[in-house]
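Minimal example, chain plus adenosine-5'-diphosphate.
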Amino acid sequence: MKKTLADLDLATLRGRTVLVRTDLNVQLEAGRVTDDQRIQASLPTLRMLHGSGARTVVLSHMGRPKGLPNPEYSLAPVAEHLSRLLGTHVTFVREAVGEGGEEAVGALSDGEIALLENTRFFAGETADDPELSATWAGLTDLFVNDAFGAAHREHASTSGLAEAVRERGGEAVAGLLMAREVEYLGNALENPERPFVAILGGAKISGKIDVVEALLPRVDRLLVGGAMANTFFRAMGLGTGDSLVEEDRIAMAAELIATAGHKLVLPTDCVVADEITPEATTRLVGRTDVHKGDHIGDIGSETRDLFHGIVSGARTVVWNGPMGVSEMAPFSRGTVEVAHAVAEACDDGALGVVGGGHSAVAAEQAGVAERLSHVSTGGGASLVLLAGAALPGLDSLSDRE
Ligand code: ADP
Ligand code: MG
């Protein structure tokens, strides 16, 4: 178990400088934040530190400025947005390292929060340069890593900084978001209440093969939808017309079918169209009736019922990836139905966890996000956790005594 912010005696934080790595990697349009989900997710930790009178210094990356300062990727608008959400002024520090930065940090008063400029303005960030980590580590002896979305990376401001702070005798702990993500995604998989059902979808098997392999021995059922299912169809010798298929993964899909046995549940019917467009006219066909020129865009009605039924009886559900091209109305029904099925299972007391950017958006659009046990904020990191692999951002933290 890793030490978390909740393990600390908050009374000891007053007047203490605390360095926090969050994931404020949001999209900007004309200098404005468009989707602030990640900023929202960072609030519990920042509120706790603000309330305890800590002098909080926040680090985050945004976009891919490739190691050079670039005004397009400045966190200045994020500092403003954060100020509004927190209801307290967040000081923006343009000089994220060096004397100017140190001075700004030294001038903080109790309870004040400062946001330093984009960590990726330094080439050392993604190169995991220990010198860059040491510059930040010099500011304090307490580091809080709350950037779950970046936890699968070894960067100077994440795992590198945790190591640097600990080497100097300080502590590195998980923030509230990081702790919550790990609790739901990690621990729930360790000891799931059964039946344990996983639902995987999305475009490609290749990005999720480790997840499939890690989940198969643990789950009671693995439901596969989305374009991922097409590659399995081909492995079964079925035609997929002009649908998205990963030709170089067909053999792998065949192996998975052979080893998974009855655990693996594939769609029995599909929604097809001549083209995948928002205005497409669709047809419902059995999986053996997909013809030349057809594009599979969603799971069919029989599959919706089948998946719904299996999810209904589950006590633990993990869902990653849409069942079809969920961003286009004619192909969104399968995903919406799965979202509702998971929410209903949660209403009945099951643990239901959703990971992945597209799936999270789909759950939100289906209006069920609030009923789910947990919606992960980290796409890549949640897949790594589900695959049972190591997260450097987490492993680098201090152990709980
Ligand atoms: P998540 O973000 O939830 O992890 P992915 O990014 O893996 O999900 O997959 C989402 C993408 O998969 C979407 O862009 C969606 O359009 C695409 N997709 C799902 N099913 C199909 C399909 N049958 N044909 C083409 N694309 C599909
Ligand atoms: Mg995605």
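The chain has 15 helices and 17 strands. The pocket of magnesium ion (ligand 2) is lined by residues 356-358, 379 (CB under 6 Å).
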